[in-house]
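Task: fold both queries, return tokens.
Query 1:
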Amino acid sequence: MSLSSTKILCIVVFVTAIAAAPVQALPVYLAEAASIPGEIIVRFRPHAPDHTRTALFKTLDVQDVRESYRGAFSIIRVPGGLFTRSLAVLQKHPVIEHAQPNYLYRGHDMGDPPDDPLYSNQWNFEMLNVEQAWQHSAGEGVVVAVLDSGVHPGGRDGFGDRLLPGFNAFTGFELNWHDDHWHGTHIAGTIAQETNNEIGVVGIAFDAEILPVKVLDRNLVGTTETAASGIRWATDNGADIINMSFGTSNLSDEGDLVLHE
């Protein structure tokens, strides 16, 4: 085998491993936490000198640094006992535009997946006057990004050819965005399930395209980092509408500014 073919084989094996590897859930001990312990999201002001950044992180005894999607912000880890002090220092530092905890977000788990196949039982659709809306549009030409636990591409009553390739905000790859819970698939189905096919239920905008973005793990938990990266990826990849069916009650008084930039 030649050197060049060996390189190609290595690349193929690496990509295959990424595609096959299961997405790890966030640790169970975070079930009731407000944010990821020890993690701070930091956004520097434009043109902040690299040496200032390096010196600041050294002063704070930063243990780890990683960059978000497109480098919009950095996620740093500091020793647990220094978290409050480090956050206060960063929030007051002149080269820092914003610093905050890496908040946790949770989807609303409604229990077992719905199994009702009858449109007549989708009472909320009547409240939305969807039949009148369908006379004008069923979402053709609109791309809806579903930021959730992913979307399952299979099933008898799926999305046809309207399910676009997605993104996994945990790994940063456009792979492994499939649903390992069911919540994201349920939400996407409510938005754009195949309709007029004599199977299952109907979607509100059944001609719209779905752009799946995995920002919640199999326990329906995500972070500021995954949500913000998912938003940026969705806007970079043609989303007209972004749906986020998750939330938190643990924010500071000023809120999660990373998500509201």
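Query 1 returned. Query 2:
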Amino acid sequence: RRRPGGGLVTERPLDTSAFHPALLAAHEAGLWSMSQTRPGELIRSGRARWAERVYDLLGGRRRRRVAGRLFSVVERWEGGQMRTDTLRRWLRRDYAVDIGPYSYGSCFELGAFPPSVSIGRYTSIGPAVRVFTQNHPLDRPSTHPYFYEAGLGFVDEDRLEPGHLDIGHDVWMGQSSIVLPGCRRIGNGAVIGANAVVTRDVPDYAIVAGIPAKVIRYRFDDATQREVIESEWWTKTLDELRAQRDWLTSVVRARQGLGLTREAS
């Protein structure tokens, strides 16, 4: 199977019991495919079991200050955000944020991204990036969350449809960029300029900037985009990509293509 917009999803069975209900709902609605990893891609420290017991004992799911301190410790143990397994599991289970291997950035900050956000592989998210998947209701007598959030105790069930955002593979989101509920997908290879406010979907390999964000240009011409997308290089592990390091680090010239069928010797 493939993620929407491209990207391999392995056939290895997945234990969905560890997923937040918001992620399961988005998956069942066909909005995205749950990220799965291949053996050796992520690191799980032998001390992670101890950290998880402390996390649960001190109520890390409900107390972000406690969770934040444990996140910092586990991140160091597991070699940083790009390859930590434990933090990805905690975010997926307790905060409904799913982060693919090798991706990093402010998506690991508790509360920066709301429930039901999925992030592909090899994606770079700058400091202070924020995502919003729901607006306050404008067609009701009040816009206050007392009247649509069940967790505040006034209503017996949530009264707004949950939103979802799918951030693709190899995306670069610049510092302090903001994604609003009008955006449901940021395509593979897209670039979001610093301080941009994104209000609609972003196509594959588009560079967008401004308030509201608009397409400035595309990273590659159409033929080169097709080559990159068809290569699906992001489905490979970092070790597998070492054989193709030359073309991954080369400068792409317009209308010349990448020569993705040729691997470096």
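Both queries returned. Flag for query 2: The mean pLDDT is 83.
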